[in-house]
Design a protein that fits this description.
By secondary structure, the protein is mainly beta. Helices cover 12% and strands 56% of the residues.
Length: 443
C-alpha cells in the first residue's frame, strides 16, 4: 500500500495541474462545448445542440519536473527511480490539477430564448509539499542525521458531479446566460491549515529518532481509518467512480454575456461557480495526530520500504510508531468551497477567413489565485474546418503556444484544443499539460 501511495503522489506531482484555463476554447463560441465556460454562448443560427462526451485537463507541477525524470535506463531496461526527480525539486513544491469530464448536455433555442441542461464530473486538486518529504520517503533518514526534516504535506482534493440547468436570452447585439448547478460530492481530502506540522529528527550521536506531529485532515469517502502498524490506509473506493448522487450536496451559479457592438466585433465575459460549496455529510470525518516520540538507534532506508525489498524487521518499530502516529478519528461534517473562475475576451473578424482574439482568465482555488492571458489567430479555409494558434502567458510560464482544430461536417462538431501544445506531443517530457476535446451534434 505504501508503494502505491508514494508512486501515485509523485506521478500526480509529475503531471498535475494548473487551474483549468481553456483560453483557446473561449475564442470559439460557435462550438457548443464553449457553452460550458460561458452560458451565453449558443451556436449562431442553431436551434438544437446535443453535447456528446467531452474531456479537458489542465495540469502542471512547479519547476521542471516531468515523467521522464522518474525513468532511468538500467542496461536494456527502464526502471523507476526517484533520485533524479528529487534533484529537480524546489524547497517548496506545488501541484495543481483540474479535470472535467462532460457526459451529456442539451440546448434548445426558442426564438430569442434558449434553455440548456447537462451533467459533468469534475476533479480539482492542489498539493503543496516540501522537498524534505520526498527526500525522506525515498532516501530514509540516514543521509539527514543531525537535520530536522519537514514532512508537512498540504493537500486539497475534491471530486464532484454537477447537474446543471440554465436559460439564456439572445438578441442581435447582446446575449445573457444564467446557469444553476446542483453539486454532488463524490470524495474529498482536505488538510487542516491550522494543524499541518510533522517533522523527523535523527540525533547524530546515538541515532535517536525524534518524531513530532500536529497534523489533521478532513476526508469523505476516501479514507475511513489509518493503521500505521501496516503503513497503510484503509481507503474506501466502493462506488466512488460511479457515484452520481450522494448526500454531499451544494449549489453554484454561472453567469455570462456576449456583446456584439458591430458585426465583426464580439466581447464576452463569464463568472463560473459563483458561491459554489459542498456540505460533506456522507462518510465525513476529521483525523488528528498529535504527539512526540523518540526511539534509539533507528535508521530506516526509505527506498527499501517503498520498493518492498528492505530486509530489516520493522515490526517492533512500526507497532511503536502506530502508537505515536495513530490518527484519532472524529465523525464531523464540514464544508468546502469550489474554485471560482472568470473568463473575458474579444474576437474580431478580419475577413471571411481570419479572426483575431484575446482572452483573459482568473481563478481562485484553495486561496490560491491564478491567471492567464492570450492572443489568438483563427483561420477558416472552409465552412466546415478551422484551425488556430494562440500565444499565452500564465503564472507558471511566459511562453505557451496553443493550437486548435475544429471540424464541422454537417451537424457534427469535432474539436481538439490545447493552450500548451508541446505537452500534447511530449507529455512525459513536460511539467505541464493542457488539452480539451469533444464532440456534439447541432442543427
Amino acid at each position: 500500500m505504501l508503494r502505491y501511495i508514494v508512486f501515485s503522489f509523485f506521478m500526480l506531482g509529475a503531471l498535475s495541474a494548473a487551474a483549468q484555463q481553456e483560453l483557446m476554447l473561449h475564442t470559439m463560441p460557435d462550438l457548443w462545448h464553449a457553452n460550458s465556460i460561458n452560458p451565453a454562448f449558443f451556436p449562431k443560427d442553431k436551434k438544437v445542440a446535443i453535447g456528446l462526451p467531452g474531456y479537458s485537463l489542465d495540469a502542471a507541477h512547479s519547476g521542471k519536473l516531468s515523467y521522464n525524470d522518474f525513468l532511468v535506463k538500467d542496461g536494456d531496461r527502464t526502471i523507476l527511480s526517484f533520485s533524479n526527480a528529487i534533484s529537480k525539486l524546489e524547497q517548496e513544491n506545488e501541484v495543481f490539477a483540474d479535470q472535467r469530464i462532460e457526459t451529456l448536455s442539451l440546448g434548445l433555442r426558442f426564438g430569442k430564448w434558449a434553455v440548456q441542461a447537462g451533467h459533468a464530473n469534475r476533479l480539482n486538486a492542489f498539493i503543496a509539499y516540501p522537498r524534505d518529504l520526498a527526500e525522506v520517503l525515498w532516501n530514509g533518514n540516514g543521509p539527514y542525521v543531525g537535520q530536522s526534516k519537514n514532512l508537512g504535506l498540504h493537500m486539497n482534493f475534491y471530486d464532484w458531479n454537477e447537474w446543471s440547468v440554465g436559460i439564456s436570452r439572445h438578441s442581435e447585439r447582446l446575449s445573457l446566460g444564467l446557469r444553476i448547478k446542483l453539486l454532488n460530492g463524490v470524495s474529498t481530502f482536505q488538510t487542516d491549515a491550522d494543524h499541518s506540522r510533522a517533522t523527523v529528527y535523527t540525533d547524530p550521536d546515538i541515532y535517536q529518532l525524534t518524531l513530532q506531529t500536529d497534523y489533521g485532515f478532513y476526508s469523505s469517502s476516501i479514507i475511513n481509518a489509518i493503521d500505521t502498524s501496516g503503513l497503510g490506509f484503509d481507503i474506501d473506493v466502493d462506488d466512488v467512480a460511479a457515484k452520481l448522487f450522494s448526500s454531499n450536496t451544494g449549489t453554484a451559479f454561472d453567469f455570462g454575456l456576449e456583446f456584439r457592438p458591430t458585426k465583426k466585433l464580439s466581447i464576452s465575459a463569464s463568472v463560473l461557480d459563483m458561491g459554489g460549496r459542498i456540505n460533506w455529510k456522507e462518510n465525513a470525518a476529521y483525523f488528528r495526530s498529535e504527539g512526540t516520540y523518540t526511539y534509539n538507534g533507528v535508521v530506516f532506508e526509505g527506498a527499501g520500504i517503498i520498493s518492498g525489498t528492505d530486509s530489516l524487521d520493522f515490526n517492533q518499530q512500526l507497532d511503536t510508531l502506530n502508537d505515536i502516529f495513530k490518527f484519532n478519528k472524529f465523525a464531523r461534517e464540514y464544508r468546502t468551497e469550489m474554485p471560482q473562475r472568470l473568463f473575458a475576451g474579444a474576437t474580431y473578424q478580419l475577413n471571411k477567413r481570419f479572426q483575431v482574439g484575446v482572452s483573459v482568465f482568473a481563478q481562485n482555488a484553495n486561496n490560491v489565485r491564478r491567471s492567464g492571458a492570450g492572443v489568438s489567430l483563427r483561420w477558416q479555409p472552409l465552412r466546415w474546418i478551422s484551425g488556430g494558434i494562440m500565444y499565452s502567458v500564465n503564472n507558471r510560464s511566459a511562453a505557451n503556444l496553443g493550437l486548435h482544430v475544429a471540424l464541422k461536417p454537417g451537424p457534427v462538431q469535432l474539436y481538439f484544443a490545447s493552450d500548451h501544445i508541446p505537452a500534447v506531443f511530449n507529455l512525459r517530457g513536460q511539467p505541464a499539460a493542457n488539452l480539451r476535446m469533444g464532440a456534439s451534434i447541432v442543427w
